């Protein structure tokens, strides 16, 4: 007799042994958080939280856009406020989660950064598609903008620039830190 709790794990192991990949899943929690079980990260359900929650930080536009330096201060204030019971929020990483390298800056399948994974793998989107066209992502998240989002990754050869993700087409690139972009907080681990 099997336990229901262990049943999904057993099914995943059988599918893995048969060469059929288990499906990744975004898990919505009732507290405004969404967990990515592949990358083991938790996103805020509101992809434009800064529009309504400033955490006392000035320099955020009414739209929620801000410079990279303001984004760093906003994330720090979010952590000081222990938002949703956590103090380890950050900007998403532009590094390839398999190799740890920075390098995908093409208007193509940049699917190995955290936001690229969300866009392409979880969202099922193709290059050139806006993030808001994914039924999966729009069912899990609110406030998504088909505009650029800051990453927490600086350009090593020019610390006046940082990476961003163009959610209108699925491209990752770099720009000056003084540019006003959106911010989507993420943290490592489950929202427990």
Could you characterize what this model shows?
The chain has helices at residues 7-17, 68-80, 114-122, 135-140; strands at residues 26-29, 33-36, 41-44, 90-91, 148-155, 158-166, 171-176, 185-188. The chain contains 4 helices and 8 strands. The protein has one domain (26-188). The protein has a 5-stranded antiparallel sheet. The radius of gyration is 17 Å and the shape is globular.
Widest β-sheet, arrangement of strands: 1-2-3-8-4
Number of helices: 4
Name the structural class: alpha+beta
Radius of gyration from the alpha-carbon trace, in angstroms:
17 Å
Main pleated sheet:
5 strands, antiparallel
Low-confidence stretches: 1-22
**From N to C, what is the helix and strand string?**
HEEEHEHHEEEE
Number of domains: 1
Distance between the termini: 29 Å
Average pLDDT value? 88
The share of residues in extended strands comes to: 15-25%
Please give the share of residues in helix.
10-25%
Overall shape: it is globular
Total strands: the figure is 8
């Amino acid at each position: 007799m099997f336990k229901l709790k262990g049943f999904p794990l057993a099914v995943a192991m059988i599918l893995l042994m048969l060469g059929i990949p288990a499906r990744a899943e975004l898990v919505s929690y009732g507290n405004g958080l969404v967990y990515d079980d592949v990358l083991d990260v938790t996103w805020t359900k509101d992809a434009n939280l800064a529009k309504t929650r400033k955490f006392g930080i000035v320099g955020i536009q009414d739209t929620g856009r801000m410079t990279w330096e303001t984004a760093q201060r906003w994330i720090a204030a979010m952590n000081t406020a222990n938002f949703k019971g956590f103090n380890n929020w950050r900007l998403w990483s532009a590094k390839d989660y398999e190799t740890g390298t920075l390098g995908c800056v093409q208007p193509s399948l940049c699917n190995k950064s955290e936001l690229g994974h969300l866009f392409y793998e979880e969202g099922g989107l193709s290059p050139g598609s806006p993030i808001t066209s994914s039924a999966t992502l729009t069912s899990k998240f609110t406030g998504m903008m088909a505009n650029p989002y800051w990453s927490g990754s600086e350009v090593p050869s020019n610390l006046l620039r940082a990476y961003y993700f163009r959610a209108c087409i699925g491209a990752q690139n770099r720009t000056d830190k003084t540019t006003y972009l959106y911010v989507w907080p993420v943290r490592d681990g489950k929202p427990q």
